Amino acid sequence: MSDVPFFKMNGLGNQIIVADMRGTSARITPAAAIAINGRAETKFDQIMAIHDARTPGTANYIEIINSDGTLAQACGNGMRCVVQSLSAEQGRQLFTFETIAGILFGQEAEDGLITVDMGTPKFAWYDIPLNEEFADTRQVELQIGPIDDPVLHSPSVMSIGNPHATFWVKEDVWSYALDRFGPLLENHPLFPERANISIANVVNPERIILRTWERGAGLTEACGTAACAALVNGARTRRTNRKATVTLPGGDLVVEWLPNDHVTLTGPAEFEWQGRLDPTSGAWTRSEAA
Ligand SMILES: N[C@H](CCC[C@H](N)C(=O)O)C(=O)O
After folding, report:
1. FRET pair for 2, CA 20 to 30 Å: which of 83, 125, 226, 249?
2. DSSP string, 67-90
3. CA-to-CA distance for 102 and 191, rounded, in angstroms?
4. Where does the record place the catalytic residues (predicted)?
5. Separation between Cα atoms, residue 69 and residue 266, nearest integer Å
């Protein structure tokens, strides 16, 4: 088997596998992703596959794979893990990457926290994408539960590379059965490419509490792009400022929507252990501690 090195990492408990695919033209197959996710030690939310650069001026091309084997356009927590693994290897702090959604920047600071520039948000219904025309995506018609007394309704929707719906709630975010509503909303006909589904409680203009059902991965401890979407949707509906702390089940991220329209995400990344995996079958072995 022609196996490649990988790191098991996490970003605020978002389970990430960083696979080093540099120097090979192989790709991680959907079957491999499903097999890797099927073993308890490597159950993951996303695989971040580091490939050789395709575009001059970028360090690497990053492919992002959900645990159901589908591709994701963006993953904020995973990008921080990629930055940390490459910066440990190369002693550099600043990186430019390419993903299917475009060019991204990442930087590790002295305090070990990592900031990734997730690019610019998109609000047009056809960019998110939605299946139905909405002139204003700050609030769209979508609800779940009894027609006259919906449990969740009128989310703000946008894309930060990947599609997100943010449902605003006044009650404790833990009082909602997101495990039940998540799959229904993720696969709702309004979203032709499915969507990541979040419930957000704005505590004050500088703090949001957030839980997310991730497209292709389910309930997670943290979803970086959902935190970006919650902040941007919060700011454009005047619920929050353009910079806020977003508290996820796994911990806090700081999100800022800059004057140049870019969204940055700052938080930790944690190395756990390393091994080697076969990108075709997903078979893996754990390496002795380096
Ligand atoms: N965990 C990721 C998001 C994965 C998105 C993925 N579930 C999709 O859009 O298909 C994050 O930290 O941003």
Report:
1. 83
2. TTS-EES--HHHHHHHHHHHHHHH
3. 21
4. 75, 75 (proton donor), 223 (proton acceptor)
5. 27
In angstroms, the CA 231 to CA 273 distance is 32
Chain segment 75-99, per-residue pLDDT in tens: 999 999 999 999 999 999 999 999 9
Structure tokens belonging to residue 97: 């990457």
pLDDT tens, 135-169?
999 999 999 999 999 999 999 999 999 999 999 99
User: Which residue's CA is minimally distant from atom 2 of ligand 1?
Assistant: 75
- pTM of the predicted protein model: 0.95
Q: Tell me if 10 CB under 6 Å of ligand 1.
A: no
Using the mean position of ligand 1's atoms as its centre, give its distance from the Cα of residue 148 in Å: 32
User: Does the annotation flag 215 for ligand binding?
Assistant: yes
Q: Which two tokens stand for residue 116?
A: 């990734």
CB 177 within 8 Å of CB 171:
no
d(C-alpha 139, C-alpha 265), whole Å: 24
Q: State whether the beta carbon of 182 lies less than 6 angstroms from ligand 1.
A: no
**What is the ipTM metric for this complex?**
0.93
